[in-house]
Amino acid sequence: MKVNPRDPIVKFAILEAHNFVCFYTKERLNLLNCTIDHIIPQSFENKSDILLKYIKNYTGEFDINNLDNLVPSSFDANTAKGDKEYDVNTVLHYIEQAKSKVQKISKRIEQLKTYKNIERSLAIISNHVISSTNPREEISKLIEFINNERDSFEEKHFVSDDHFVLSLPSVSLDAYLPRSFKEQGCCLLMFRSLFLSDCMITLNHHQIIQQLFKGLNTKPQLGKRGFIPFINQYSPNIYYVQIGNNRFTLLENEVEELCQIVDEFSNVYINKFKSLEKQYETCNFNKINPINFSVNMFEMNRHLWNLLVQFSWEFDYAKGNTEWHIFNATNGTIVIYPNNTILSRFYPVHSENNVYSSFMHLDESVCIVWEPIEQPDLINMKTAWGAKEAYLWMTKKFIPYVIYYTEIVKKKKSFKRTITYAEFQNQFDINQYINFSSFAHFEHSLGTITNLSELNSLVGNLQVFFTSNQNIYISPIEAKKTYEALSLLVLHTLLPDYAYDYIGGKLSCDKIRTQSGILQFLKHKINTIDQHEYNEITIDLICRCILEVIRYTIRQPSLAINQAILDELKSLLFPIWKKYEVEKYIIRMAN
Q1: Hey, what long-range contacts does 355-363 have (CB within 8 A, 24 or more apart)?
Q2: In what order do the strands lie in the sheet with 434-435?
Q3: 234 with 102, same domain?
Q4: Nearest partner of 539 among 480, 445, 463, 468, judged by Cα
Q5: DSSP label at 417?
Q6: Angstrom distances, CA of residue 117 to CA of 123, 126, 266, 345
């Protein structure tokens, strides 16, 4: 089939059939950076002897602009190929590959040409709608009918270490997962909706987290999804959707497919992010850079940082062979470099926690940053330090020894006894030298809880989190199980009157605020759980009540809760704890 390669419709159809990648390099392409290349160059039309050499074994009538001679190419690949003469068998092989796409491209070209004539039909449709008794209903019917007539995406599901693809009939998502060394995740969304006219939307890591991952695993009708700003009140089967800087409308079935794809994508994306954190040992830090997985470890005085740098210069690996000759002297950074292998690197940035006291004086604090080291091979990759190992080395070994070396060894007087390094370490307090450490305190997971004090800490974290983070969807099962956990505690604990009054007030209990009255109220709440909506405020209030019971019980050893009840409490709190873990981690990924 002969076509005009300059026609935008032809260009798009060819690019789409080849999955938006360069035919030669497999580089990702779009309509802006794509060129259409002639496998047998156009210039050969005027060189019949060369052209004949290529087409003598060609089946059918050859034309330089036949679809089987046209492929998508990056600009660089097209330029490099030029009009050089290549091996005949290679060229014929390329043509056979292109020929396998011809039927699909031809069909797509005809479809796209049909859509160009749609304006002419709109006048007829408009007249029909205006003359009907219910114009909105007629519009909905027409949209749904036209949309159903369009070809669907081929259903695909593919997951690898760094790639995710999921296509349903109306929505397709193609994503690169987060990768090592500043390769942040991104995705491409495509729709078969009539409203979008084959629009393609790309999102970076932050847009994925802030828009797609808000309101995961909730029905679109609830309005909790980050990409559904509001619902069309006049046509319930049409949704307004905002992704990136694009706002458009989708039908209900298309939105449901989009939600299904996003939920499955989120599991893969989050797990890949967690695996990178585990690899780099950043899990123990309160905050990371989600792009390059660097960590702002702590702050220190500029003078101390200068001492550390000077020490690394003095103990450059090329100047000696003691245990401390492990540095590669650089300007302003500290590089650990034993055996010609970089284990870690530290560098200072401006402190975020302090401000300039005046425009005439610099802030005296600097923040020390660690980031992963890119190694050229897998063997060395195993030797590079993770963030936790680097932090412990810096705080437990390096800083103490530099202070000892500077204050004791260098100032040693021959007639006085010098304390040993072991003695110095026993009295050394790292907190006198660093501030705002981001190394996180150990947080119990639900499975490791063994007593009420640990459960008190865990429920406290839940309460603070749901107080601080708004618009988190709470499912009926999550609310029910949390109410049941409170009911179990109230049932097995005899509380003073003020505690029952506190619980009743928090829950707006309209019954007598006694143990039996509170239990009756909670039973009614649990039995009618599907008749109400719940949100983060609900969990906040229930957690406050649970904390009231736990803290009173801790103060009264005679009221100790046995292991069986503790295990049941953990089981009941598990659904809301999982919601807490997922939502908290999504916030971490966005920072």
Answers
A1: 362/302
A2: 334-336, 344-350, 365-370, 295-301, 434-435
A3: no
A4: 463
A5: P
A6: 12, 15, 39, 62
The pTM is what?
Answer: 0.69
**pLDDT reported for residue 8:** 83
pLDDT (tens digit per residue) in 40-63 = 998 888 888 888 888 887 877 888
Which tokens belong to 235? Answer: 């046509």
- Whether 96 maps to a domain, the answer reads yes
Is 381 a residue whose pLDDT tops 50? no
Average pLDDT of span 397-416:
85
H/E element, 366: strand 365-370
Query: Token pair 């040693």 is at which residue?
Result: 412
pLDDT in tens, 119-169: 556 555 666 666 677 766 666 666 655 555 556 788 999 999 999 999 999
User: Do 15 and 143 fall into the same domain?
Assistant: no
| d(C-alpha 586, C-alpha 265), whole Å | 13
Q: Are residues 586 and 526 in the same domain?
A: yes
Compute the residue count for the chain: 591
Looking at the domain assignment, is residue 441 inside a domain?
A: no
- Tally of domains within the chain: 5
Which tokens belong to 205? 């890591």
Which is it for the CA torsion 60, 66, 72, 77, positive or negative?
positive
Q: Are residues 219 and 315 in the same domain?
A: no
**Side chain identity at residue 280, one-letter code:** Y
Q: How far, rounded to the nearest angstrom, does the alpha carbon of residue 590 sit from its chain's CA centroid?
A: 7
pLDDT at 196 > cutoff 70: yes
288/274 Cα distance (integer angstroms): 12
The tokens of 144 are what? Answer: 């749904």
Site of tokens 């990648």: 21
pLDDT value of position 402? 96
Residues 485 and 564 in one domain: yes
Q: Is residue 285 part of a domain?
A: no
One domain for residues 400 and 507: no
434 pLDDT higher than 60 = yes
- The answer to whether residue 287 sits within a structural domain is no
* Structure token pair of residue 408: 């004791």
- 313, 430: one domain: yes
Among residues 132, 149, 166, which one ends one of the domains?
149
Residue numbers of the domain that contains 185: 156-280
Higher pLDDT, 64 or 233: 64
Same-domain check for residues 26 and 68? yes
CA-nearest of 473, 476, 447, 440 to 579 is 473
Q: What's the chain's average pLDDT?
A: 86
Report yes or no: 320 and 313 within 8 Å, Cβ to Cβ.
no
Q: Final residue of a domain: which of 409, 435, 461?
A: 435
Give CA separation, 379 vs 243, 376, 382, 396, 463, in Å: 42, 9, 6, 27, 45
